[in-house]
C-alpha cells in the first residue's frame, strides 16, 4: 500500500469524519507542559477556550504552512498554493508558507504518477507571506507559473549546506531542525492571538513503512532530494522554545491522526487535526477553510471544525475520507 496522500485519487465510495468528544465546547483542560520554553500544548486552557482578548493591530491567527513538495506531491503543492493565494492574508490572518520544490531528476521515479507534470516552478526553498491574488494569478500558479507570488516572497530560510543538482543551495525539509527554525522564526515574526501549524507532505504515523527513497521510518515530511524524513518521535523537538504556544497542529499528510502520534505531540499544541487514512493528493481545500477562519475563527476548535467539515464536503462520494480533531491535553490519561 502506498501511504502517500496521493493514493486515494481514483477510489470512489462513501466517506465520513469524526470530531472527537473531547473537543466539544466546555471540555478539555491543561495537563503538564511548559509554555514557550518547552512543549506548548498543556497550558491550562481547554481545547476550545478562546485566547486572551484581541489586541487591535494584531492578527487573530498566524498560519504557518510547512509545504515540503520535494516528492511526488509537487503538482499538488501548486494547486494548494493557488487556493491559499485566492484567499491570502489580511489584518486578521497571516498565511506564511515555507515551500520547497526540486528538479524532476531528484524525485523518486518509482513514486511518480503517469501523466503528471512534475516540472517545478522554481528550484529551492522559499518563504512567502501570501497576499490575496486575482483569479488569473491563481490560475497561473496552478499552471506552474509562480512569478505572480514574487511580491509576496520573503527572505529565503537559512540553508543546511545542502545543494541541489543545479547548484542552488536549499534546505532539507526532512530535517526536524529545519522545521523547528521555521516555527521559531514564524512565531516570532508574525505574532497573533492564535498560532496554527500545517505540516504538508507524506506521512506514515507510527507505521514502519519501508520507502527505498528515504532513510527513516514512522515519519512525516519526506524529502526525496535529501533522502530524509522527520521521525514521529522527533517532531516535538521542533515545537520547543517558540515565542507563543501552538494552538492547532494540522497534518495534511497520510496516517498521522493516530494515538501514538498524538501522544508524542501532547505538549506541543492544544488541538491536533488530521486523517487516520491516506487522503487524496489534492489535500485540504485551503481556499474554503481559510475563508472560514478569516470570517470569524476565534478558537482552535473553530479552525479544527472548519478543516474537518470542508475536507469531508470536498471529497463526498470517496472512500477513506476520514478526518478528526484530538484534544491533546487528554493524552496523558
Sheet-strand content, in percent, reads 15-25%
**Total count of helical runs of at least 4 residues:** 6
Tertiary shape? globular
Beginning-to-end CA distance, first to last residue: 33 Å
Commentary on this structure:
The protein is of the alpha/beta class and 333 residues long. The longest helix has 15 residues, at 300-314. Helix 1 (74-87) packs antiparallel against helix 2 (135-142) and helix 1 runs parallel beside helix 5 (286-296). The chain is 20% helix and 18% strand. The chain has helices spanning 74-87, 135-142, 176-189, 259-264, 286-296, 300-314; strands spanning 59-68, 93-101, 124-129, 162-163, 169-170, 192-200, 219-223, 228-231, 248-252, 271-274, 324-327. The protein has six helices and eleven strands. Strand 9 (248-252), helix 4 (259-264) and strand 10 form a beta-alpha-beta unit. A seven-stranded mixed β-sheet has the order 3-2-1-6-9-10-11, with helices on both faces.
What's the layout of helices and strands?
Elements: E1 59-68, H1 74-87, E2 93-101, E3 124-129, H2 135-142, E4 162-163, E5 169-170, H3 176-189, E6 192-200, E7 219-223, E8 228-231, E9 248-252, H4 259-264, E10 271-274, H5 286-296, H6 300-314, E11 324-327
Parallel strand pairs: 1-2, 1-6, 6-9, 9-10
Antiparallel strand pairs: 2-3, 4-5, 7-8, 10-11
Helix pairs in contact: 1-2, 1-5, 5-6
Amino acid at each position: 500500500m502506498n501511504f502517500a496522500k496521493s493514493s486515494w485519487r481514483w477510489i470512489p465510495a462513501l466517506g465520513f469524519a469524526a470530531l472527537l468528544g473531547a473537543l466539544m465546547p466546555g471540555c478539555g483542560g491543561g495537563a503538564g507542559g511548559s509554555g514557550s520554553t518547552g512543549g506548548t500544548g498543556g497550558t491550562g486552557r481547554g481545547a476550545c477556550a478562546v485566547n486572551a482578548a484581541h489586541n487591535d493591530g494584531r492578527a487573530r491567527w498566524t498560519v504557518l504552512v510547512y509545504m515540503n513538495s520535494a516528492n511526488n506531491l509537487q503538482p499538488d503543492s501548486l494547486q494548494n498554493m493557488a487556493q491559499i493565494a485566492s484567499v491570502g492574508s489580511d489584518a486578521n490572518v497571516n498565511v506564511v508558507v515555507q515551500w520547497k520544490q526540486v528538479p524532476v531528476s531528484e524525485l523518486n521515479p518509482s513514486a511518480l504518477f503517469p501523466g503528471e507534470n512534475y516540472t517545478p516552478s522554481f528550484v529551492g526553498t522559499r518563504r512567502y507571506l501570501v497576499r490575496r491574488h486575482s483569479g488569473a494569478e491563481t490560475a497561473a500558479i496552478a499552471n506552474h507559473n509562480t512569478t505572480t507570488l514574487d511580491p509576496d516572497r520573503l527572505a529565503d530560510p537559512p540553508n543546511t549546506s545542502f545543494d541541489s543538482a543545479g547548484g542552488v543551495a536549499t534546505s532539507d525539509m526532512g530535517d526536524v531542525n529545519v522545521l523547528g527554525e521555521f516555527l521559531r522564526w514564524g512565531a516570532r515574526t508574525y505574532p497573533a492571538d492564535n498560532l496554527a501549524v500545517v505540516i504538508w507532505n507524506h506521512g506514515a504515523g507510527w507505521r514502519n513503512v519501508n520507502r527505498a527513497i528515504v532513510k527513516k521510518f514512522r515519519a512525516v515530511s519526506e524529502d526525496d532530494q535529501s533522502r530524509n524524513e522527520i521521525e514521529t518521535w522527533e517532531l516535538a523537538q521542533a515545537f520547543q522554545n517558540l515565542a507563543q504556544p501552538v494552538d492547532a497542529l494540522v497534518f495534511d499528510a497520510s496516517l498521522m491522526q493516530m494515538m501514538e502520534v498524538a501522544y508524542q505531540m501532547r505538549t506541543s499544541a492544544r488541538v491536533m487535526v488530521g486523517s487516520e487514512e491516506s487522503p487524496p493528493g489534492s489535500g485540504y481545500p485551503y481556499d474554503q477553510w481559510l475563508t472560514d477562519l478569516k470570517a470569524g475563527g476565534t478558537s482552535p476548535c473553530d479552525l479544527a471544525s472548519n478543516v474537518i467539515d470542508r475536507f469531508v464536503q470536498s471529497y463526498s462520494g470517496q472512500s477513506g475520507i476520514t478526518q478528526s480533531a484530538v484534544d491533546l491535553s487528554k493524552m496523558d490519561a
